[in-house]
Design a protein that fits this description.
The protein has helices spanning 4-11, 18-23, 147-150, 167-173, 211-217, 295-303, 325-330, 340-349, 367-384, 416-429; strands at residues 28-32, 42-47, 50-56, 62-66, 80-82, 85-87, 94-96, 101-103, 121-127, 130-134, 145-146, 156-163, 222-227, 231-239, 245-253, 257-261, 266-276, 279-288, 306-307, 312-313, 402-403, 407-411. It has 437 residues and is α+β, with helices and mostly antiparallel strands. The strands form five sheets. Strands 12, 13, 14, 15, 16, 17, 18 and 22 form an eight-stranded antiparallel β-sheet that branches. The protein has a six-stranded antiparallel β-sheet with strand order 1-10-9-4-3-2, with no helix packed on it. Strands 5-6-7-8 form a four-stranded antiparallel β-sheet, with no helix packed on it. The two termini are 39 Å apart. The structure holds FE2/S2 (inorganic) cluster and fe (ii) ion. FE2/S2 (inorganic) cluster is lined by residues 69, 71-72, 74, 88, 90-91, 93. It comes from Celeribacter ethanolicus. It holds the Pfam family LigXa_C.
Length: 437
């Protein structure tokens, strides 16, 4: 349990807040690239409590500037996209992609007032189907050499979804290996051959056991955590009846991402990005070590569950997440359908907008969550003392930060390290792009 002020410190993200300042030292997903594939590429972005507008100018370059016009606050999302910038429709003030005001057509001829007007703007960069923003001071850090950033465009697919809750509880479900045995329990097993693009439907590592069966029958993983240069490596072991050990390696990437295996072919790297204190988007990059990703199928699967333009899930608290007590009795643990994203969404949204951590009871299975909160607290304290170099990945050569290894494996002889490294090595060795680490 923690005090209210500790909970506020870890969860709130506006400018000048404790966690908000830590998050601002890292690249943040601001939009999917596909959101700009329109005739008029201008989209509203709300990120860490700041209202912004993202646009692609006539040179094809991106700008991310404050949403409310510096003149008298009109909404620039309705701006005219012209002459390499965005022009406010109220009085025609024109801003370039860096936010500099370059023209004020209603001001007297020869006025140079515009030279002193600058809309707040942030650096953006496009990678792996996502537009990333850096909202912190100084130069942005380099992108780490993670698989999702190394793989060619053909082998990555990005999507996002809205969750109506604070980012921290959203992220914490991703570093909680025990919940999969309950929240995502299927009372029957699907044919793993139908598993493309879905999580927990493949066979477990190199066995004939469906992941659904393994999770169901072995609900008490032994979980251990190791601090790494990027965050936390989480090892979950399930000791099978025949003496073999199922190993699942997942990761927390500081400050708000996770990396997990989706199937033998793909991994998911997922950011839990604060929109504000009480809403967040998950942004997932699916990275394939085998065939190019079937992006059309992946997108179609996910668009069946989400509406555009805000990527809000069709199942949500307003319709009880599709809860069906008969299904809960016979098919799934939650009664909320087969899409595990909905299960996670229910779990984290049902805690309330910001989980009340003054009234919780963490157990041994929450070891990764405990470890993560310690790291975040240490980062907050370091920043307050001007020690931002102490934050994960801030002062290391990013090109040397690989992986993270996210894999399921079977240790037949109990040698856990050898088993997962071998399994991961096979996958990387046979990969069509350079995945060697
Ligand atoms: S409010 Fe934008 S130009 Fe006047
Ligand atoms: Fe989950």
């Amino acid at each position: 349990m923690m005090s209210q002020s500790q909970n506020d410190s870890l969860t709130r993200v506006g400018p000048g807040t404790d966690a908000g300042e830590v998050l601002r030292r890292y690249w943040q997903p601001a939009a999917l690239s596909e959101e700009l594939n329109t005739k008029r590429p201008v989209v509203p972005v709300r990120l860490m409590g700041e209202d912004l507008v993202l646009f692609r100018d006539s040179e094809g370059k991106l700008g991310l500037i404050q949403r409310h016009c510096p003149h008298r606050g009109a909404d620039m999302c309705f701006g005219r996209l012209e002459d390499n910038g965005l022009r406010c429709p109220f009085h025609g003030w024109h801003f370039n992609r860096d936010g500099q005001c370059v023209e004020q057509p209603a001001e007297p001829e020869g006025s140079r007032m515009h030279e002193n007007i600058k809309a707040r703007s942030y650096v953006v960069e496009e990678r792996a189907g996502i537009v990333w923003a850096y909202m912190g001071p100084g130069e942005p850090p380099e992108f780490p050499n993670f698989d999702c950033f190394r793989a060619p465009d053909s082998h990555v697919f990005a999507f996002k979804g809205l969750w109506e809750c604070n980012w921290l509880q959203a992220m914490e479900v991703g570093i909680d290996p025990a919940h999969a045995s309950f929240l995502h329990r299927f009372l029957q097993d699907e044919d793993p051959a139908d598993s493309y693009g879905k999580q927990f439907r493949d066979k477990a590592a190199n066995t004939e056991i469906p992941m659904t069966k393994l999770l169901r029958e072995y609900p008490r993983p032994a979980i251990s955590v190791d601090e790494t240069e990027f965050g936390i490596k989480i090892t979950a072991l399930r000791h099978l009846d025949d003496g073999r050990v199922h190993v699942r390696i997942t990761n927390q990437i500081f400050p708000e991402a996770i990396s997990i295996p989706m199937s033998r072919e793909m991994i998911i790297t997922q950011w839990h990005v604060p929109i504000d204190d009480e809403n967040c988007y998950w942004y997932s990059i699916f990275t394939s070590f085998k065939e190019p990703v079937n992006k059309e199928l992946m997108r179609e699967q996910r668009l069946k569950e989400h509406r555009l333009p805000d990527y809000a899930p069709l199942k949500n608290k307003r319709n009880n997440y599709g809860y069906n007590p008969d299904e809960q009795e016979r098919e799934t643990y939650t009664g909320m359908g087969l899409d595990i994203n909905v299960h996670d969404q229910w779990a984290v949204e049902s805690m309330g907008a910001i989980q009340d951590r003054t009234d919780e009871h963490l157990g041994k299975s929450d070891v990764a969550i405990i470890k993560y909160r310690r790291m975040l607290r240490a980062a907050i304290a370091a920043l307050k003392e001007g020690g931002e170099d102490a934050l994960p990945m801030q002062k290391v050569d990013a090109s040397t930060v690989f992986g993270p290894i996210s894999v399921d494996a079977i240790a037949a002889d109990g040698d856990v390290d050898a088993a997962y490294k071998t399994e991961d090595g096979i996958r990387r060795g046979g990969c069509s792009w350079d995945a060697i680490i």
